[in-house]
Request: fold
Amino acid sequence: MAVKTEIIFNRQVSKRYFHLKVKVPDKQLFPVQAGQFFHIKCSDDQKPLLRRPFSIFRINEEEGTLEFLYLVKGIGTKALALRRPKEKLDILGPLGTSFTMKEESRNILVVARGVGIATLSALAFKAKGENVSCFAIISARSQEDYLVEAELKIAGVEAFFVNDEDGTSNPQCVRLLAETLIKEKKIDGIYTCGSRRLSVLMKQLACQYELFAEIAVEENMGCGIGSCYGCVCNVEEEERVRPVRICMEGPVLPLKKVVFA
Reply:
């Protein structure tokens, strides 16, 4: 469903990232689940013509609001960054699959790079609501790019931050940290988003420790509703590889099934 929402705020939170909050009229788009995404028309002008996909960062059904955290990178997000409070914003959704929280789950690990923490933050709040302990490894280029530290604390997440500048974000360091958490915190589920390199590593660990694991796959999407086949990735099932449309069968997929090219 496409709805004209009202922008409550759209503010810059760091050098490269913005935080957007919108009010949904009559709660028309709810319920919304962690992991799903919305296709947003970034500008009322003809360009950019196509909508852009944004994973949901915060869900508040009671007050009828949705929040998005986004990286300003191309013409779409640059146009969105210019939008102001009280303007109307056309959003389509919720779309795609959501994260699975297993009934027996007690301790989960989320591993994110950059703006990948946006969709995993929504999962952290879901975990809090279900009395599941959540631990996080947050990777970024530098300390300046650390996102949502305060929000993760509110969600009760014990977070560990690593970055490229001090060399703590390389796979060897992250593997050591993740394995320590898996063993000491008795992790029973892994969720990841935002980095192919870390996703490959988490897949290895999920297989090694036989853990439930999901990934929110990020990809450019032309239509967002399965028509253009512009967001295909491969998954391996029953000893065969098949392509799936991320906007339809994802963005949340079983991590162990995803084939990383």
